Every structure is written in structure tokens, then in C-alpha cells.
């Protein structure tokens, strides 16, 4: 196993023309407000994932209640796998997910009697492949709805009985859904920076059913919205400085200095600079458009550094 070589995976950053954006707005993001849609597309572009291929989703919770309304950007399991493959040191497990089953648990709330699903992935580090394993428990992730009844005075009371929504994926494909959660947990465990604050839709479906948020939970949701708004603010651009590093919001006025520092730090490694430019091409395009004065010197410096890589390659061929 340790003799398997890592494969460099090309980065496929998605971008959409106005017609495609209109299609996204009318279909997979139709519940979004204008600001939410802008944030969703901005994040999808920075991640290099395609909403039209269901690689990334915008989920709007409590959309009819302004006080509790919240948009969450979630990544489909295929999007998780794409991001993992881009690291260059990921390998999926050749074995099927493993399940623990308890027949006594079978019922409307657990049609397969699942206790947990376990999935492992492999990460290449220090010259060898290492397995990373994670488990997801049914009781923690299954989106269960509680049955209610009315007493003699007409007040609603919980019955203590739970069930899955009939016809939902969790009811029809319980093993697949729980395995997706376990795989997302394993990938986040193996690459914590690459998957920070990214969640698979199956991980949040239980939370979407909660209609009894406390004031403190609503406050936390509001704080998260403010944080996301700052990330996609009008004066910042998301950049990824290291191949396995997180996306970082950089103020527009500081971006030129940060890029020039990177070029100077890696001036003896033009290939690394060329790969960085490719990895951040959408952020750099946004920089060219929004700050053409500052961007001109940066663009020339990047082109010069990348031309050095081409010249060295030509010399090597000769």
C-alpha cells in the first residue's frame, strides 16, 4: 500500500455566465435573497464547486420568519470528494461502509435498525498511506419528527414518539444517508483546514427540523450570519495561500502586499507560484476587476515568476 504514488489532481474551478447564474437563481437557489445569493455564488466560486451539478447547496432555514431566517451553505458528498482529491494526498477506501445494526431498534424512526455507520479514507503523509476512520450514529443525525397530540383543553402535547418523514431519503435509503455523514466526518478529520466550516446536507437535516430554538441559539445563528457577511464583504476577497490551507478573507487594500510577499518568499520556486496562481485564479480575476491600479504590478510580477517556470522547463528539455 505504501508504494502507491500520489496523483496530482488538476483544479477545476467553476464559473458561470449570466444565463447560468439566472438558472441557478431560479432552480437550486430560488429561496435565497439577493444578498444570500451573492454570498452563495461567491463561496461556490472560491471553493470551485458547481451548484448546477449539486456539488454545493444553499439551504434557507425559517425562510418565512425574519427573526430566525438563516442560510447555510452545504457541500454535497461529491463536492467533499472533489475537494479531497484536489489535495493530492487522498485515496478513498476500497471497502464498503461498515454498519452496526440492532434489530430491536427497527421501526418508523429507524427502518433498518441502524446504530452507526463507519467509513474510512486514506491520507498520504510522511511517505505512507494512513487510514482515517469516523463513525456517525443514527440517533445524532437522523432527521426525526416528534408526533404531537391535543389534550382536552386543546393544548398540543408531545407524545414521545418519533418518526421519519415518509418518502424521505432517510426513510428510503437509511444506510446510504448515514454513510454519507460518516464519510464527511472522516474527510473533515483527515483535512481539518480544507473542510473547516463545510458540512454535508445530511449532517444538518436534523437541525433543519428544530422549530424550538432558544433565544441563545437564535443569537448564535445571527452571529454566524454576521461572520459570513464579513467573509464575503465588499472590501475582501477570499484567497487560499497554501494547498491544504483554508480560504482566508483578505482586505482589498492589503491583497497586493500579501501577493508580493508570497512571490518574494518563493522566488526560487516558480512552479509553486504558478500553482498558487492557478489555485486562486477566480480570486485574482476579482482583484483585477475591483482594484486595477493595485493589481497591475501584481499581475506583472506573477507573469514574470510564471515565465521563469516556463523558461526553466524549456532549458530542461534542451
Describe the overall structure.
This protein is of the alpha+beta class and 318 residues long. It contains 12 helices and 10 strands. Strands 3, 4, 5 and 6 form a 4-stranded antiparallel sheet that branches. β7 (144-150) and β8 (156-164) form a beta hairpin. The longest helix has 26 residues, at 292-317. The radius of gyration is 23 Å and the shape is globular. Residues 1-12, 210-219, 228-232 and 309-318 have low confidence and may be disordered.
Q: Rg to the nearest angstrom?
A: 23 Å
Major pleated sheet: 4 strands, antiparallel
**Which outline best applies?**
globular
Number of strands: 10
Concise synopsis of the structure shown:
The protein is 45% helix and 21% strand. It is an alpha+beta fold and 318 residues long.
Layout of secondary structure:
Layout: H1 18-26, H2 34-47, E1 56-61, E2 70-75, H3 77-86, E3 90-92, E4 98-101, E5 114-125, E6 128-137, H4 138-141, E7 144-150, E8 156-164, H5 169-172, H6 174-190, H7 201-208, H8 215-231, E9 236-240, E10 247-251, H9 252-265, H10 270-279, H11 281-290, H12 292-317
Helix pairs in contact: 3-6, 9-12, 10-12, 11-12
